[in-house]
Specification:
Elements (H helix, E strand, L loop, with lengths): L6 H7 L4 H6 L1 H17 L10 E5 L3 H13 L7 E4 L12 E7 L5 H12 L3 E6 L2 H10 L2 E4 L14 H14 L7 H18 L9 H9 L3 E6 L4 H13 L6 E4 L21 E8 L4 H4 L1 H11 L3 E7 L4 H22 L8 H10 L2
Parallel strand pairs: 1-2, 1-3, 3-4, 4-5, 6-7, 6-8, 8-9
Helix pairs in contact: 3-7, 3-8, 4-7, 4-10, 8-13, 9-13, 10-13
Length: 358
């Protein structure tokens, strides 16, 4: 489709109702915060005295761990590691909190990691909607958040990030590893509702930042650039461009890219016509990071590569994470619309899983 203001065409393409899941992100956050906070209060004291935190998950279910790792790394009382594999690190033992996250509860790698965590005597917490992990939790009396995804009409795990991010955040908060209040979450939900209104399908393209950026990224390879607390959510944005828009997209972080990528902008020269850098900038980045952005943008432009700067404006780091969650979700959705694609099905991922299961 060519007109992102054509609501009937959007409804025709979006057969799986991904748009409905994006619109419900604020409600996902509110539901997960309330439900997990109530569960976590009753957890044993041993969960509050761990020295390491490991989040095990794959794809969309791993993104919550990546997001919290980058958001809380400078303030959390215990280091967070994200594991996307069948087994856990060697150091996992009874002083480790292992959060097993799988939307379906049947992800093979995460189920395997669950057995590994149990054998190592770790403190385990499961986040899922059901499946094998829910059965494991019931059979072994494992603490868990088995939730009904009432606010994810698409049924796609990647569209349930409001649940997964907030469930993990609420758990760590109630265990004393971070300090987020009910008032903070109420503000986040309110701000997300405002973002849904600003970026929603009924807001015309001339006033809609998400539609404008989707139009800029059509027929381009998006290259997302972020730093510090936005690294994890930028990774999620990239994944949604892959899965929702069915688009090739890349992600790099500053300062790391300054040590290699700048020299890679020369060749092949033909690539410059279809690469588009999107710098996810924030006033909350550390001073030494903020200094790098204008210089990196200057080098990008001098090499003839198109770029834009997207200012993330939330007042706090956690505000900005949820802000970008909404904005990135909408951009990926509108890009799918411009490509004339139903964003919900992931045929090649499903094909791979089916072949692997043979």
């Amino acid at each position: 489709m060519d007109n992102l203001d054509d609501l009937s065409k959007i409804a025709e393409l979006d057969k799986g109702n991904v748009l409905g899941s994006i619109e419900a992100l604020p409600k996902q956050v509110a539901q997960a915060w309330q439900e997990v906070s109530e569960i976590a209060i009753a957890l044993p004291d041993e969960y509050r005295s761990v020295s390491h935190i490991v989040v095990s998950g794959m794809g969309g279910s791993a993104l919550a761990g990546r997001i919290l790792h980058s958001l809380l790394s400078s303030s959390n009382l215990a280091p967070i590691e994200v594991v996307t594999d069948y087994s856990l690190p060697y150091y996992v033992k009874d002083d480790t909190l292992v959060i097993l996250s799988s939307y379906s509860g049947n992800t093979a790698e995460t189920v395997s990691a669950a057995h590994d965590a149990m054998s190592k005597g770790a403190r385990v917490f499961i986040v899922a909607t059901g499946g094998k992990l829910a059965e494991l939790a019931k059979e072994n009396n494992i603490n868990s958040y088995i939730f009904e995804a009432k606010q994810n009409p698409s049924g796609q795990p990647r569209m349930a990030l409001g649940y997964s991010i907030t469930a993990n955040l609420a758990l760590l908060n109630k265990l004393g590893f971070t300090q987020v209040s009910n008032v903070d979450i109420e503000k986040i939900v309110k701000d997300m509702e405002s973002a849904v209104s600003a970026f929603g399908a009924r807001t015309p393209i001339k006033d809609n930042l998400a539609k404008l950026y989707a139009a800029k990224l059509k027929d381009k390879i998006p290259v997302l650039i972020a730093s510090s607390h936005l690294v994890g959510i930028a990774h999620a944005f990239k994944n949604q461009l892959n899965e929702n828009s069915k688009a090739f997209a890349l992600f790099f972080d500053i300062p790391e890219l300054n040590h290699h990528l700048l020299e890679g902008l020369r060749n092949p020269a033909s690539a410059k016509s279809f690469i588009h850098f999107l710098f996810l900038d924030s006033e909350l980045y550390p001073t030494e990071i903020k200094k790098r952005y204008p210089i990196t943008i200057d080098v990008t432009e001098k090499n003839g590569v198109a770029c834009d700067v997207l200012k993330i404006k939330g007042q706090t780091k956690i505000d900005q994470v949820y802000e970008l969650l909404v904005l990135g979700s909408y951009i990926s959705f509108y890009l799918a619309m411009l490509y004339g694609i139903d964003p919900s099905p992931i045929p090649w991922v499903d094909y791979f899983k089916n072949e692997l299961a043979k």
